[in-house]
């Protein structure tokens, strides 16, 4: 849509690369603006009956490769073309593909949480917005059926483990943190630029 000129603004979980910006310029004769808006994280959820709720990053990598003895099947909101899957490939597997025979997929992030609540054999990967809104009563009820896993801080010296709460994301103590970026295709002030400016403000 961006390349077909029907969309002027994207909000995505990856920074626009120089090659992508050059491709846009070649096609549209303008360089899209891109920048950081906020921080997000990937949360791990387990069933209330699961024996584990504390994991290490090597354990997660092993699960995604299918080379660990942990009794869990990783569950994503799809097997491709989702930001959670791309993050797992880019950041946990360092570009290696998922072992599709060892991975399960739901149709949405909500279904990931629902499936984990019903099956102690799943380890669910979801964006933190699906588990971190205390004002969403439906989300709060669903979270009563699962547990949020602890992960180690890879920049701390005390070996502490953290959950993906706002402070831990802000201070980068939770390891599966990612940026939320805007990509703006406007060469003059317009609706997209105005919305970006609003989102950069305190209220936004």
- The whole-number mean of residue pLDDT values reads 89
Task: Give the quaternary arrangement of the chains.
Answer: single chain
* Helix-strand sequence: EHEHEHEHEHEEEHEH
Poorly predicted parts: none
Total DSSP helices: 7
The biggest sheet, with number of strands, parallel, antiparallel or mixed sense and barrel status, is: 7 strands, mixed
The assigned structural class equals alpha+beta
Shape: globular
Relevant terms:
alpha+beta, 204 residues, 7-stranded mixed β-sheet, 30% helix, two-stranded antiparallel ribbon
List the helices and strands and how they pair.
Elements: E1 9-12, H1 18-28, E2 33-47, H2 57-65, E3 73-76, H3 83-92, E4 104-105, H4 109-118, E5 122-127, H5 137-143, E6 146-148, E7 151-152, E8 161-162, H6 166-170, E9 177-184, H7 191-200
Parallel strand pairs: 3-4, 3-5
Antiparallel strand pairs: 1-9, 2-5, 2-6, 2-9, 7-8
